[in-house]
Write a structure and sequence with these properties.
alpha+beta, 5-stranded antiparallel sheet, 20 helices
């Protein structure tokens, strides 16, 4: 019956996978042409013969924006890809070849449904930046305001949609054809889900407009930190107009010093701002590279909100606990936090997980916080999670990627400042916030009330359970496993105890027989009693000899038999 059930479940899974493959095949209308393009690129770079990290970067760039975006996302997924590939894919964050200016003007006209000259006095032909999805130009509105105009590349929406649809079809086919690699395929499906979600947000500039509005409002609580003013009246899904920000890029240390800026203080404020975004507000800049952080008159300005992350209250609490567990050297708290922010993708051995996390904490506890590289520490935690089939939630993955990027920025700006120091300080201060104290107090009261309620029910529950046991309504079953050596020891011990009891029984029985007149007799003693004494003596000597022999074997680390 069990085999039949398993076979039926396997057959059902196969039917579902087949249906999934057919569904994606019917949706995919352009895969033939695109597949030929992809195969042509793969042959050009001789991918089928040898693939190195450097060649993989060139292949992704040749395949187009969708695959560049995949590489950018994969650069932080060391739980799926080898470290060498993750490091190589970081190169994909560089600018790409810009669109011709006439094409930019055509896109603006198409977006407005009228001439760009009706909105702008002038647009600078030289782009401020060019990425795989859009490029940015400086412009002037009719009211004299200087703005930055972000223009989406033409045809990029359909191109990326088709690429994702093709990848869905290939993945569905692989799931049907190669069921033995389900775990690996599920990892790629999670990556593809994340790609589709983030790409959808990045392609719709209305989403970035909302991000700008929300982000700017939340930064008002941070002294000396802001973001560009958005212009909703001139923005839509393919065009985003925002305040043009002039200032010094944060990685230009010499220029900052010429302006009289204290670079270490700036670095500290950037760190504080970032962790306040993530841990206090739950809405953070997910791409804090140097080009997205501007310093203007001692003021820090976060720009380009195309990629943001959002943590719900539960995730914020777990991430905060994860940082606190590191500073408190508490492996159990770290394990609970890691499990809470992850999705299980297979069996998890909690004992080994706890052991490996404890080893990591021991490793870093011997160093001061100033000597801890957060990127390396995060990478090791992710590696432990990967071995235990745990995959971080996408929002937490974005935060980890952001923290690692930020650490690189801070290292170039102020090498003496350690990000781990700043986040530890922030977590400690956060625990003293009235809101946090109130939340923790409420949690403790709720937990105490629940425990008290459970305690009052315990006697009745135990009484009911014992009564059901007495009536035979409950059966207790156990499954105890032991090694062969342990079982052999138990069997040997039980056998010797049995022989000792038999010896005692013979001795007592013989003593009773000797008080009777049972015939025949030997020297006025019943023969049966004499034989019983002899048997009891022999068994007793045997048990004593075997006991000393077992003791000798145990002392010498030998197997007891």
């Amino acid at each position: 019956m069990g085999k039949f059930a398993r076979g039926r479940e396997s057959a059902l899974a196969t039917v579902q996978e087949f249906a999934k493959m057919i569904r994606y095949s019917m949706k995919d209308k352009t895969s033939g042409r695109r597949m030929r393009q992809i195969i042509s690129v793969l042959r050009r770079y001789d991918v089928f013969h040898e693939l190195t990290p450097e060649k993989a970067v060139a292949v992704l760039e040749a395949l187009g924006p969708t695959y560049v975006k995949i590489g950018q996302m994969a650069s932080t997924r060391s739980d799926i890809l080898p470290k060498a590939y993750c490091e190589a894919f970081e190169q994909l964050h560089a600018d790409v070849t810009p669109m011709p200016f006439f094409e930019v003007l055509q896109c603006i006209d198409s977006s407005f449904g009228r001439s760009w000259e009706d909105v702008f006095i002038a647009i600078d032909p030289k782009p401020l930046g060019s990425a795989s999805i859009a490029q940015v130009h400086r412009a002037v509105l009719h009211d004299g305001a200087v703005v930055a105009v972000k223009v989406r590349r033409p045809g990029i929406v359909s191109e990326m949609t088709e690429d994702i649809q093709l990848m869905r079809r290939v993945l569905a086919t692989a799931e049907f054809m190669a069921p033995a690699h389900q775990t690996l395929l599920l990892n790629f499906e999670n990556l593809l889900d994340e790609l589709e979600r983030t790409t959808k947000n990045e392609l719709d500039f209305n989403v970035e407009l909302e991000n700008l509005i929300r982000f700017r409002a939340e930064l008002e609580s941070q002294d000396g930190v802001t973001s560009p003013l958005p212009y909703p009246a001139y923005s839509n899904e393919s065009l985003l107009v925002m305040q043009y920000v002039e200032g010094v890029q944060v990685d230009d240390v010499d220029a900052l010093k010429r302006h009289g800026d204290d670079v270490k203080r700036i670095a500290y404020r950037i760190c504080q701002s970032y962790f306040q975004q993530a841990l206090d507000d739950g809405f953070f800049h997910a791409d804090p590279h140097p080009g997205n952080i501007i310093v203007r008159g001692h003021e820090i300005i976060w720009i380009d909100l195309g990629m943001t992350g959002s943590l719900d209250p539960g995730q914020r609490q777990l991430v905060g606990r994860m940082f606190r567990s590191v500073t408190a050297n508490d492996p159990y708290m770290l394990m609970q936090s890691v499990i809470g922010i992850s999705k299980q993708n297979g069996p998890v051995d909690h004992g080994i997980l706890l052991q490996e996390l404890a080893a990591l904490l021991d490793k870093y506890s011997s160093s001061t916080l100033a000597n801890i590289n957060m990127g390396d520490a995060m990478g090791e935690v992710v590696e432990v999670m990967r071995k235990q089939n745990l995959i971080m939630a996408p929002a937490v993955t974005m935060l980890v990627r952001g923290v690692v990027t930020l650490e690189g920025v801070i290292e170039d700006l102020a090498p003496s400042l350690n990000v781990m120091d700043v986040v530890s300080e922030h977590v400690v201060l956060q625990s003293l916030y009235p809101k946090h104290v109130e939340m923790r107090t409420l949690e403790l009261l709720t937990s105490a009330a629940g425990s008290a309620e459970a305690l009052t029910k315990l006697p009745k529950q135990m009484s009911n359970t014992l009564e059901m046991l007495d009536r035979g309504e409950i059966e207790l079953k156990g499954n105890v496993s032991a090694s062969t050596d342990v079982l052999a020891t138990i069997y040997a011990s039980v056998g010797r105890i049995s022989l000792a009891l038999i010896s005692v029984g013979l001795f007592l029985g013989s003593s009773i027989l000797c008080t009777t007149n049972m015939e025949p007799k030997l020297l006025e003693v019943p023969v049966l009693g004499v034989l019983g004494y002899i048997g009891a003596f022999v068994l007793g000597v045997y048990v004593i000899v075997q006991t000393f022999r077992s003791r000798h074997q145990m002392k010498n680390g030998k197997r007891i038999d």
